[in-house]
Amino acid sequence: MPVRHAANTVMKSLAEIYSHLPDAPSEKTLERVDYEARHWSSPIQGPLKPGTEEHKRAVAAMFRDTFNPYKPSVIDWPKLDPETLHRITSLPIWDIAVQTEGKARLRMAAYADMITDPDMKDALSRNAWEENRHKEVLTKLVEAYNIPMAPEPPYVTPKDTEWAYLVTGFSECVDSFFAFGLFALAERAGLFPQELIETFEPVMQEECRHILLFANWLAWHRATMPFWKRPWFELRVIGVWLFLAYERMGLARSIDENGEEHTQDNNFTVTGAKDMTTMDISLPDLMQLCLDEDDRRFSGYDPRLLRPTTTPMIARAIIKGAKLWDRVRSKIAA
Ligand SMILES: [Fe+2]
Ligand SMILES: [Fe+2]
Fold first, then answer.
1. Which residues contact 276 (CB under 8 A, 6 or more apart)?
2. How many CA atoms lie within 13 A of 20 on its CB side?
3. Cys staple from 85: which of 80, 149, 231, 317, with CB 3.0 to 4.6 Å?
4. Is residue 91 in some structural domain?
5. pLDDT at 37 over 80
6. Any idea what the CATH number is for the domain that residue 202 is in?
7. What is the pLDDT of residues 223-248, one digit of tens each?
8. What is the pTM of this model?
9. Distance between CA atoms of residues 102 and 130, nearest Å
10. What is the 11 CA–ligand 2 centroid distance (Å)?
11. In terms of DSSP H, where are the helices of 225-282?
12. Positive/negative CA dihedral, 133, 138, 143, 145
């Protein structure tokens, strides 16, 4: 079966699983599912070592059990005052945000389709489904606030499915880490109405679950691949990081219906941080906030499951570097 067709089949069966999401859940149900989406522990005793059946089953169960059944079509978008509306519509992130979710869905579904292990296949297919729901949430927001959008490019099934999945997975690890901090910052500053913050809160937590899954998939994949494949895989991982660094330094361009060129940063973090410069936070403080939020969002999940480590390590290095620089400066000044 061709990859595209097979991926669609997986998505279709998932759409059926989730076709009975509640329209208007009670307050109690909402509280319960929100709690369950943030807390999960495996009943299995002992260590959960990547490569073992126990670890793999726990990862898949975590992803299934923490599913939040919210429905994008019933979100009540709050009416915004002109200033807030302008702040939101002028953020140059909407095109790239919608397209990123669309691409993530396709890439995850394509990769899920390649995996033969039923547990990992199930978890990754669900992840793809959730990316599509993110896209729906964003599409609804764009409609509700009349945000002008560039036409979406066609979503093409990747030729190198593993590479595309690695790029998407590591991108999510980087972007989610910074998004956690920026989201908390925006909330504290009262930059957006509370209802909007509450609408996006489950989406944020979902990204936390996604990168938790990715970190554990990666460990499982490394542990179960034949040893002779490992060097080439590690080279590809390095390649992905180089690609991400290059992509984040570059600018993405898109053309709207009138043929006008829109320039936008290729990630939420840089753009988001620029938009929040009015909030006057130093880079090390922002990094610390990202680290705290990262810890907080992961704290409810079984500590035996692995967490992404590279981006937090970069954040800690930035904090250390800034402290060192301060010390050097004060020595020079003295
Ligand atoms: Fe997403
Ligand atoms: Fe995601």
1. 182, 185, 186, 189, 191
2. 1
3. 80
4. yes
5. yes
6. 1.10.620
7. 999 999 999 999 999 999 999 998 88
8. 0.87
9. 11
10. 16
11. 230-249, 268-275
12. positive
The ligand that comes nearest to the alpha carbon of residue 100 is 1
Length of the chain: 334
- 201 Cα–ligand 1 center, Å: 12
In a domain? residue 175: yes
For the chain, how many structural domains are there in total? 1
Cβ pair 102, 128 in contact under 8 A:
no
Q: Ligand 2 center to residue 127 CA distance, Å?
A: 7
Look up the domain containing 307 and give its range. 3-18+53-333
47 inside domain: no
Quote the ligand 2 centre to 213 CA distance (angstroms).
10
The alpha carbon of 35 and the centre of ligand 2 are apart by a number of angstroms equal to 19
pLDDT higher than threshold 70 for residue 261 = no
Distance CA 304, CA 34 (A): 22
Distance of alpha carbon 145 from alpha carbon 128, whole angstroms: 26
Q: How many Cβ atoms are within 10 Å of 142's Cβ, its own excluded?
A: 17
- Ligand closest to 211 (CA) is 2
pLDDT band at 256 (very low <50, low <70, confident <90, very high): very low
d(C-alpha 175, C-alpha 265), whole Å: 13
Mean pLDDT of the chain: 87
Ligand nearest to the CA of 101: 1
